[in-house]
Amino acid sequence: MLNLETFKQYWDKQFPDLRLRRCNYLLAVSGGLDSVVLAHLMRTVNAKCIIAHVNFQLRGEESSRDENFVKAYADQLQFECKVTHFNTAAYAETHKQGIQAAARDLRYTWFESLMTAFEKENQKELILLTAHHADDQVETVLMQLFRGTGLHGLTGMPNRRKDTLNLARPLLIFTKEEIKQYSDVNGLTYVEDSSNEKDDYTRNMIRHKIVPQMEEIYPSAKENILSTVEKIKEAEQIVIETVTAFWKKGMQFKKGIPSISIEQWNKVKENSTYVWGLIKQYGFKPQQIEEVNKIVNASKGAYINSNTHRIIKWDDQIQIVSLESPKEYELIELGQPICKTKWGQIQFEQLSIEAIGEINKDPKFAYLDAANISWPLLFRSWEPTDYFYPLGLRKKKKLNQFLGSLKLNPTIKSRTGVITCSDKIVWIVGQRIDDRFKITPNTKQVLKITFQDTF
């Protein structure tokens, strides 16, 4: 049963980090039953709220009616009210989206902008509240199941999010019927969205047809689904802990790069739960699991990207490289003429020993015995743990010490990169080659590398 007491009890149990009367809230209000009830509850407990309403301009006069109702209701509750308008249909067409997906993108982007502006102006956190309830949860889980999903998809909507969006759902445990009863007891009025009665959208079809038919066979279907969701959440936590421990044990950091041995990866490569447990934190999508697994048996240098990271097969390792890191990491394939870096470009030429002519002694040129080179090469930022054998010496030296001895400008030192071949440094770009790759009297083919800086 939903009343003020059960609402506060649920709040205190589920949101221990949120003080009901002390925090600041952005309350998404459409004018419908659910959001009207949530706004009434937040006013009753004297919470500090700002109401946010989006006019999607999809239902003509009805959209204007909803907007006016929400403004009046905000005045009645003495809450500040923010309103915005979107040409949702045009946005959906431009971005090749369905209306529902477009509306969701638009409203959450706007909510996020309001929260950012508030926090910048007031130096206080603003938490978004939505009025999703238990019936919404059932519909969401069924939609995920029908589309095809993993374990996490069957856990439905979380009641709390603190990732890209700071959000809480205080009504998620209460049913639509309980919310309606609260409205009736407190004499609340609200507006009806006529589109909710149509079966044009998938969620409406599930709500109006599939769920009622299920309840004819299993009268407690909703309760059973919600109970199962809670069990799946518990199971998911066990899975997360097990998978995290597996990858943590197998993760190494070679030259600062997260790396996993092929041997370790092969233990679970046929298990999508383990693979997904690793790659999801690096921005990859479930649809990429199969392609990621193919990298293991691919040739050296093969890779696959997410929006933020790259997974690379490198020798007997799988390496995970950030695409957003200030450090650089670029593969160089055989026959590739140029590698562009942040601070210049590197040119590669294969020449016979007879064709090289006079050797340019400028440190921005490197001449290497091509017979000692295995491809692909790798250009990357230097690491404090790097070492090499400076030309003319048979003793290895830490790269940090070598660069220090050159008394370089700190900025230039930080921009210095290295070219490696199977984890051996070939050239400190623009400074010194490694003695193991120098030209000898037996050299027949030469790899000439030229660095053109932009600073």
Report on this model:
With 455 residues, the protein is α+β, with helices and mostly antiparallel strands. It folds into 3 domains: 4-228, HUPs (Rossmann fold, 3-Layer(aba) Sandwich); 255-322, Uridine Diphospho-n-acetylenolpyruvylglucosamine Reductase, domain 3 (2-Layer Sandwich); 329-453, Phenylalanyl-tRNA Synthetase, Chain B, domain 3 (3-Layer(bba) Sandwich), CATH 3.50.40. Helix content is 38%, strand content 23%. The protein has helices spanning 4-14, 33-44, 61-77, 88-94, 99-122, 134-147, 176-185, 202-217, 221-250, 262-266, 272-279, 289-296, 399-405, 410-415; strands at 24-28, 48-55, 80-85, 126-129, 160-162, 166-168, 251-254, 257-261, 303-305, 309-314, 317-322, 329-332, 338-341, 344-352, 365-369, 377-381, 387-388, 397-398, 417-421, 424-428, 432-433, 445-453. Strand 7 (251-254) and strand 8 (257-261) form a beta hairpin. Helix 6 crosses helix 8 and helix 11 (272-279) packs across helix 12 (289-296). The longest helix is centred in the middle third of the chain and has 30 residues, at 221-250. The mean pLDDT is 92.
Q: Helices and strands in order, then pairings?
A:
Blueprint: H1 4-14, E1 24-28, H2 33-44, E2 48-55, H3 61-77, E3 80-85, H4 88-94, H5 99-122, E4 126-129, H6 134-147, E5 160-162, E6 166-168, H7 176-185, H8 202-217, H9 221-250, E7 251-254, E8 257-261, H10 262-266, H11 272-279, H12 289-296, E9 303-305, E10 309-314, E11 317-322, E12 329-332, E13 338-341, E14 344-352, E15 365-369, E16 377-381, E17 387-388, E18 397-398, H13 399-405, H14 410-415, E19 417-421, E20 424-428, E21 432-433, E22 445-453
Parallel strand pairs: 1-2, 1-4, 2-3, 4-6
Antiparallel strand pairs: 5-6, 7-8, 8-11, 9-10, 10-11, 12-16, 13-14, 14-22, 15-22, 16-19, 17-18, 19-20, 20-21
Helix pairs in contact: 2-7, 4-5, 6-8, 6-9, 9-11, 11-12
